[in-house]
Amino acid sequence: KIYSSGYVSGQLGIFDPETRTHKQLGGVKQAEGVTFYDSQLFLGTYPGAIISVFDTAKEPGDENPKSLFNLKEQGQDRPFGMLGVPEENRVFIGTVPGYGLLGGALAIYDPDTTLTAVHRNLIKDQGIVTFAYKDGILYGGTTIHGGLGIEPTAKEGKLFLWDVKQDKMVTELVPVPGKRGISGLRIGPDGNLWGWAEGALFIFDTKARKVVYAEDKLFPNTEPRHFWRGGSMTEAHDGKFYGCHFGKLFALDVASKEVEEIAGGGLEIVTRDSKGRLYVIQRENMLQLTPRSR
Fold first, then answer.
1. CA distance 281 to 121
2. Do 95 and 80 meet the contact criterion of CB atoms below 8 Å apart?
3. Cα separation, 68 vs 79, whole angstroms
4. Cα distance between residue 134 and residue 130, in whole Å
5. If you ran DSSP here, which 8-state letter would residue 204 be given?
6. What is the C-alpha separation between 80 and 39, in angstroms, rounded?
7. What percent of the chain has pLDDT over 90?
8. 8 Å CB contact between 91 and 42
9. What is the 3-state secondary structure (H, E, C) of 225-242?
10. Which has more confidence, 229 or 101?
11. Could you tell me the CA-to-CA distances from 280 to 83, 131, 181 in Å, in that order?
12. What is the mean pLDDT of the chain?
């Protein structure tokens, strides 16, 4: 199934690619970030950074979906970063703060104990908007922007490494100088971390722990004044990465690192189904793309 959430109206949309049927459920506000943890779909919703869960293995009802907790008392508003890691028994949540505030949070939720640890302002005056995970390390990307109504004090978005077992920061760095935010983090087929620093593609060697590639690609800096969610990226069955950034859908050849612009016009948030078909949002519509086979 392909799950979606509405801007402003919220709700949870469920699309079945095989039957091509669609239904909507209430009980969920505007989701800024979404992730799976086994059969559970975790949604980080705005306002108030409410974390909700929908168990896809159970029938919808009064308690499915349901709200679990919120980060409003910690000054948080928009949970853009969401990543479930069942092998660590953790759901990681990265947030942008509320109106007039700087400094997001890393929240770590244990679905077994339902305990939540919150690390406020982990990267000084920056919000946390994207994650990837490999071998006990959580990789996070930040934006210099906070809530509406306040100017950023930081100049460059950062990449940070968090040791999950020791529950502490390993390091933080600027992967590409002069860029406002990091987004679209994924572990590539080479085992390294791939991501975007605004319009620059970068690759971070997860063993040597250094940036080994960085280059500006197709995308000019046309994002509105606030850089929040940024780009998204997913793998497809043809061996390429597909993603959305600055309103454009692109294909990234992982061997040559060449980027091909496929379409534009307000495209954002890409995901795929079990057969490799891609889905991308264009305002109130969801579009489907089937990549060619290798």
1. 31
2. yes
3. 14
4. 14
5. E
6. 21
7. 86
8. yes
9. CCCCCCCEEEECCCCCEE
10. 101
11. 19, 20, 22
12. 94
